[in-house]
């Protein structure tokens, strides 16, 4: 059993690649557990999950999951910023060329 918010869901083990009806279409489902990738904004706007394989080849996955845990690796040069009511996750100040404020 896995705790998921206030609900408990039974997780079944998915084989290497099982077939399921997804959106009315037969699809191949493969577990995403433990897969490392990159969240990025596609040119058309929505966020996608990019998984690299064999050098420079990659697959971009449309994100439909509504509550997925994410851990940011230390080498990602990421920083949280707070500006009044706005909270932002962006690159570190040195990557953006930001100057330190006196206040």
Description:
The chain has 103 residues and is mainly β. The protein has one domain. It has 1 helix and 9 strands; from the N terminus they run E-E-E-E-E-E-E-E-E-H. The strands form 4 sheets. It has a 3-stranded antiparallel beta sheet with strand order 5-6-7, with no helix packed on it. It has a two-stranded antiparallel sheet with strand order 1-2. It has a two-stranded antiparallel sheet with strand order 3-4. A hairpin with a 3-residue loop joins strand 6 and strand 7. It starts with a strand and ends in a 7-residue tail after the last helix.
* Major pleated sheet: 3 strands, antiparallel
Mean pLDDT: 84
Strands, total number: 9
Distance between the termini: 49 Å
Summarize the structure.
By secondary structure, the chain is mainly β.
Pick out its properties.
mainly beta; 3-stranded antiparallel beta sheet; 1 helix; 4% helix; elongated
How are the SSEs placed, and which strands pair?
Layout: E1 2-4, E2 7-9, E3 18-22, E4 25-29, E5 38-41, E6 47-53, E7 57-62, E8 78-83, E9 86-91, H1 93-96
Antiparallel strand pairs: 1-2, 3-4, 5-6, 6-7, 8-9
